[in-house]
Design goal:
It is a single chain. This protein has 9 helices and 12 strands. By secondary structure, it is an alpha+beta fold. The chain folds into 2 domains: about 140 residues, 3-Layer(aba) Sandwich (Aminopeptidase); about 150 residues, Aminopeptidase, CATH 3.40.630.30. It has a 12-stranded mixed β-sheet with strand order 1-2-3-4-5-12-6-11-10-9-8-7, with helices on both faces. Strand 4, helix 3 and strand 5 form a beta-alpha-beta unit. Helix 3 crosses helix 4, helix 5 crosses helix 7 and helix 6 crosses helix 7. The radius of gyration is 21 Å and the shape is elongated. It starts with a strand and ends with a strand.
Length: about 300
């Protein structure tokens, strides 16, 4: 068997390749559309071939201006491939080496709610997880994927907080304060590995690089002017989302998270959003409860494998 990136001659087989397991995968129409937008690319599309036939496929994704892929969207090998986990790990390793960079892209696997109770889904996850870990994606986070639509109603302001625009320096300071004691797994790892200051800078830079508009960002204050937190409405290449929100440690436990989430929802709704998406770790119970109170629906699970943060 041969592992390699694709060429133009492989395109028809690549788009005809299907996944016969109950996990997320990329269909031909989406692949072709985003190939045209440089979000999928031949050099980011790797295959396992047995003679002239493709028996495995890994699709890495990036933004239009990305110099390297940001995430693995689809990994599949036919069940007939011997040593499936080992071949999949070799496929990931080959891609990671070719992409270079300090760390390999994360692997984002979308699953139905209650996936552990379905033997077919849990089996499909098991070999992918083993391959991911063998290829260095050893950190695992499970997240709820949530949605708001206009039929849920636009939340009214409680009046407990006021929201204003602010400078990058002011936002950076609030990012730093919120990072301390966060229940978000990625934030906790970054703070442990980088320290609060550098973790805050990387978090802010990440959102500055997203498709969302900087002018949407807001700092939250109490009526007496005390900084309470921040609201970062953002976007992906596909739709607007709840990018980042948080409450400073000394004001947590007062329900301000509901006010901040409501502000993000209002900003997007006032801009005409028909769909707002969000994610939160399954272990972040307070944030999950806030989304539920705001009416956001849990539609699926995201299982994310990533390299160690240190």
């Amino acid at each position: 068997m041969q592992i390699r990136p694709t060429t133009a001659a492989d395109r028809e087989q690549v788009i005809a390749f299907t996944v016969d397991e109950p996990v997320s995968w990329i269909p031909a129409d989406r692949y072709l559309a985003e190939l045209g937008d440089d979000m999928y690319r031949p050099e980011w599309t790797w295959i396992v071939s047995d003679g002239d036939r493709i028996v495995g496929r890994a699709l890495w994704w990036g933004q239009r201006d990305s110099s390297a892929p940001l995430a693995l969207d689809c990994l599949h090998l036919e069940a007939s491939v011997p040593d499936r986990e080992e071949v999949a790990a070799a496929l990931l390793d080959a891609g990671h080496r070719a992409f270079g960079g300090a760390k390999p892209p994360l692997y984002n696997l979308t699953l139905p709610n209650g996936w552990r109770d379905d033997p077919a889904v849990s089996s499909a996850v098991a070999w992918r997880k083993a391959a991911s870990v063998a290829a260095g994606l050893v950190e695992e986070v499970e997240r709820l994927r949530l949605e708001w639509t206009p039929d849920l109603g636009v939340p009214a302001s409680s009046g407990r907080l006021r929201f204003s625009e602010a400078t990058d320096e002011e936002f950076l300071e609030v990012f730093r304060r919120i990072a301390v004691g966060s229940l978000d797994a990625e934030t906790r790892r970054n703070v442990a590995a980088l320290g609060a200051d550098r973790a805050a800078r990387e978090e802010m830079d990440f959102y500055l690089d997203r498709p969302g508009k900087r002018e949407w960002w807001r700092v939250a204050h109490t009526p007496d002017g005390t900084v309470a937190g921040l609201a970062i409405p953002s976007a992906t290449p596909y739709n607007v989302n709840v990018g980042y929100l948080g409450v400073v440690p000394e004001l947590r436990g007062r329900g301000y998270v509901d006010d901040i989430l409501a502000e993000i929802t209002r900003i997007h709704a006032e801009n005409g959003a028909e769909l707002i998406t969000a994610t939160t770790d399954t272990t972040n119970a307070p944030m999950a409860a806030a989304f539920a109170r705001a009416g956001y629906r849990n539609t699926e699970i995201r299982l994310i494998f990533s390299p160690p943060s240190d």
